[in-house]
UniProtKB/TrEMBL annotation:
Domain of life according to the entry: Bacteria
Domain L-asparaginase N-terminal: 232-339
InterPro entries tied to this protein: Asp/glu_Ase-like_sf, Asparaginase/glutaminase-like, L-asparaginase_C, L-asparaginase_N, L-asparaginase_N_sf
Protein name: L-asparaginase N-terminal domain-containing protein
SMART domains on file: Asparaginase (SM00870)
GO MF annotation, one: asparaginase activity
The species this protein was found in: Herbiconiux flava
Length: 556
């Protein structure tokens, strides 16, 4: 059965943290308002600054004929009649031509067809004009949109294709908007009747309670708020419920450009969807000069609607991807390398760009790594409990099959550097950062592990670092070895006799994501009776557990 969407695709757009793609341009009080009210910054030489806004009632406007292009008047014989003429002095309208009057078109702006680009008239409570995102006290006026509905509306109204057509998103698909871990929030709540996001399927779409900065929404300015491990559990459950219970042709995840690649790879591992899941981000905020995010969104919708991703059964054969500036990257290999449009690379030296969306979406090859519906780590097949560092079972999922925030694995990265050893003793005692992390994991994180980013390309580490990492292994914490630079596959001395997991050509952040998911499936490594002196049999048991991890790392 091939994929064959209805006349229109059905797409859900998830809002994630610190998403520049959902960050609007700063709202500045317009020049016309400054001049009319005598406000600071009034300057008749400056042009008007327009912002997308809603009209409160229908408005009749008279548009000067032949003003959309400098050469319209030169070819006016090609045009039909105008609607009338306007006296430039009095503004009086006449349906009949009059000497010295301006030919115009009469149009009515319907509020339902908005938003429209209009002068921004608002001022601060103290009467001063708005000049940027912050007031004099440093308090933020939020700029991040709370969901993607407004972005879609503005793209449909103002975005144009090469032939001058608009409606580039809603002309292709119908949308639901889900706030999984959004960048903007309603600090005073929101009535149900005003909500633009979609309720989680199976739940009542009631009033939205007041939301808390840093707990319910996560901007990056003016005060950067980082999501934490419980946030990852919460957004995973929301995405899982939405895609499991909803009938969508595809999904789009929005997040800040430095980290989208990590969340999308995580979702690629744990969400059992059979439809495309696409990560989008932007180097420039929505509506500002050079913005690339709108283009990425439009191309992602076209990718979903095209069906190029489908196999003979209509299932996604590519897995979660990122679409940035016309390129389709696998979530496993993509990495942000530069803060500019197009600043993404395929990390690992062995592919990662599987197609493009410059014109009609096309694929050039299909990856072999397991993903989404074929993943061994999909949420609906994870165990409800796994062994923890203290030997007790860690309950990872609740009765509804959701991840429990308190059980989320903690994985940290230790980096090899040249001249890193304190001395020539090769003693683990000098690796205080690794040892302190091991101690904290034993105290606070019953599911935990480490990633050792070793030398390029094979992941080698110096002896004191190896000795410290083995202390973690012998206390139940799996260690993954990767090489910095991403050009080769970690093996050789980095495996330490089968006690470390070979991280293939994964970057350290991607190896961290995969190890977190594996900990939810396998749990802690077997614990020796004496971690300082494991017996040969205990070492064999650890190697057998590491081999299970290795199988997943070799295939995902």
């Amino acid at each position: 059965m091939t994929f064959s969407p209805a006349s229109r695709a059905s797409v859900v757009i998830f809002s994630g943290p610190r998403a520049t793609i959902q960050n609007s341009a700063a709202l500045r009080t317009s020049q016309s308002v400054r001049q009319a009210r005598g406000l600071a910054g009034a300057d008749e030489s400056l042009p008007e600054s327009l912002r997308a806004q809603q009209l409160a009632a229908p408005v009749t406007a008279y548009v000067k004929a032949f003003s959309a292009h400098p050469l319209e008047k030169d070819a006016q014989e090609l045009y039909g009649p105008v609607d009338g003429w306007l006296d430039p002095a009095s503004g009086e309208f006449s349906a009949d031509a009059r000497d010295g009057w301006t030919p115009v078109y009469e149009v009515t702006l319907d509020p339902a067809k908005g938003p429209f680009p209009l002068p921004y008239a608002a001022t601060q409570a103290n009467g001063e004009p708005w000049d940027g995102p912050f007031d004099d006290n440093g308090t933020a006026r939020q700029l991040f949109y709370p969901d993607a509905s407004r972005i879609v509306a503005e793209i449909d109204r103002f975005g144009l294709d090469g032939y001058g057509g608009n409606n580039l998103m809603s002309g292709v698909a119908d949308f639901d908007f889900v706030r999984a871990a959004p960048s903007g929030g309603y600090t005073k709540g929101q009535p149900a009747a005003e909500r633009t996001d979609s309720a989680l399927l199976g739940s009542e779409h009631g009033d939205l309670p007041p939301e808390v900065l840093g707990e319910d929404f996560f901007p990056y300015m003016p005060m950067r708020q980082e999501p934490a491990l419980p946030t990852l559990a919460a957004l995973t459950n929301i995405v899982y419920d939405t895609l499991t219970n909803g009938d969508y042709d595809g999904a789009i995840w929005l997040e800040g450009s430095p980290t989208t690649e990590e969340t999308v790879y995580w979702l690629n591992l744990v969400i059992p969807t059979r439809r495309p899941l696409i990560g989008n981000c932007s180097q420039y905020g929505h509506g500002v000069f050079g913005n690339d995010g709108d283009h990425n969104l439009v191309q992602s919708v076209n990718y979903i609607a095209s069906g190029v991703w489908a196999d003979e059964q209509g299932d996604d054969r590519v897995g979660a991807v990122m679409i940035q500036n016309g390129q389709v990257f696998t979530s496993r290999e993509v990495q942000k390398a530069d803060a500019r449009p197009g600043g993404y690379i395929a990390y690992g030296g062995h592919g990662g760009i599987v197609g493009n969306t410059v014109e009609d979406p096309v694929l050039s090859f299909v990856p072999v790594a397991r993903h989404t519906s074929t993943s061994a780590l999909r949420l609906d097949r994870l165990p409800d409990a796994v062994p923890g560092l203290n030997g007790d079972a860690v309950v990872t999922r609740d009765d509804a099959g959701h991840l429990r925030p308190e059980a989320m694995p903690k994985v940290t990265i230790a980096r090899y550097v040249n001249y890193g050893q304190d001395d020539f003793s090769d003693s683990a005692d000098s690796e205080v950062e690794i040892l302190a992390r091991i101690e904290k994991n034993l105290r606070d994180h019953p599911l935990s592990g480490l990633v050792a980013e070793g030398s390029a390309p094979y992941g080698g580490v110096y002896e004191s670092m190896r000795a410290a990492l083995l202390k973690g292994v012998f206390r139940g914490m799996p260690v993954v070895a990767v090489g910095r630079g991403g050009g080769g596959y970690a093996f050789g001395q980095s495996t330490i006799g089968g006690l470390f997991i070979r991280g293939s050509n994964l970057s350290a952040p991607k190896a961290r994501i995969l190890l977190m998911a594996c900990l939810l499936k396998f749990g802690a490594l077997p614990l020796p009776a004496d971690p300082e002196a494991p017996t040969p049999a205990e070492l064999d048991a650890i190697r057998a557990a590491v081999a299970e991890y290795q199988t997943v790392f070799d295939t995902h």
